[in-house]
Design goal:
Layout (H helix, E strand, L loop, with lengths): L1 H27 L7 H18 L4 H22 L5 H21 L1 H4 L5 E2 L11 H28 L1 H11 L1 H6 L4 H27 L1 E2 L6 H14 L4 H21 L8 H22 L20 H6 L1
Antiparallel strand pairs: 1-2
Length: about 300
């Protein structure tokens, strides 16, 4: 039971890290990205290939996974710079499926649907399962903490304010002299880098990756995590990531209590319960559990509501 709880905590850290990456592109910049799992796969495969086939250190592999995902994100952002809304969502979803299908067919590189096994983990050979899980939990939590601090500083910096301006009204930001395309590419690349790190850490934790792991359902879960936690808010992204993992795992224990269900029916009921709980949360808190704080800038000489009431 202890190992299970630790494993779920590690999964929560990875989901929170992915939600932070999504928050940069969608929460702050307003770019709908349904290709999250594609960037996770790029980071996972880049790190796995370098550490397995070239025997490079794990740190180098994770860094390479972040760089590879960031470069891929920048390229996707350049291609889709003029797309908005549904069109951007469709293109990014197609990108993720392209990555998955490529990984399934390029056997010489990714070993196809059999996947890559034997991905090294930090001190996996010298530590027992319990100590290894605790060590990796510490690593995942440290990476998440660094990413959270970086995301918070970025959101409060002028860069973050420009992203919000682009999200609220792209044309006004352009008229104000901001290079909209450049900011979009930077936001997409930074968000993809966080997703790539999450994918790389997942591969090193489980020691195995395969194309069927990187399915669109993962994108849906991360998107729901950001919505439930609070879009545009780093704290909400972290809370939402852990919340979704908690709902996914708690529903697993509820299903056996319902008599007469087949395995397929149980899986369907589990997905239904998770969706229903998330709908309830969003119904009660439409802006998420931790809504994005709204900045109110006072303009000298401007008429306020109190002045109007006095007059």
């Amino acid at each position: 039971m202890e190992n299970y709880l630790i494993a779920m905590a590690v999964t929560g850290c990875l989901y929170a890290l992915m939600a932070l990456g999504l928050n940069l592109t969608w929460g702050l910049a307003g770019m709908v990205n349904l290709g999250l799992v594609g960037f996770v796969a790029v980071g996972a495969y880049a790190s796995a290939l370098l550490t397995v086939k070239l025997s490079l250190p794990i740190v180098v592999g994770v860094a390479a996974g972040a760089v590879a995902a960031a470069l891929t994100g920048g390229i996707v952002a350049l291609i889709t710079a003029r797309l908005r809304g549904d069109y951007l969502a469709i293109v990014t979803l197609g990108f993720a499926e392209t990555i998955r299908i490529t990984a399934s067919n390029e056997i010489w590189l990714t070993n196809g649907t059999d996947g890559l096994s034997g991905i090294p983990g930090p001190y996996r050979g010298t530590l027992g399962p319990e100590l290894y899980n605790l060590l990796f939990l510490g690593i995942a939590a440290a990476v998440l903490a660094i990413a959270f601090v970086f995301a918070e500083r970025l959101a409060q910096a002028p860069f973050g304010r420009v992203l919000r301006a682009i999200r609220d009204d792209e044309q006004v930001a352009a008229v104000a002299g901001k290079p909209v395309t450049a900011f979009k590419v930077k936001a997409f690349a930074l968000g993809a880098a966080a997703l790539g790190v999450a994918g790389a850490l997942y591969g090193h934790y489980t020691s195995y990756i395969a194309p069927d792991i990187f399915v669109p359902l993962l994108t849906l879960y991360v998107t729901l995590a950001l919505l439930a936690g609070g879009r545009g808010n780093s704290r909400g992204a972290v809370i939402g990531g852990f919340l979704v993992v908690f709902l996914l795992e708690s529903a697993r224990f509820v299903i056996p209590l319902v008599p007469g269900l087949t395995a397929v029916q149980g899986a369907a009921l589990r997905e239904f319960l998770i969706a229903a709980l998330l709908i309830v949360i969003l119904r009660l808190r439409p802006n998420g559990l931790v809504p994005e704080p709204r900045l109110h800038v006072e303009i000298p000489g401007a008429t306020t509501d109190s002045d109007l009431q006095l007059s």
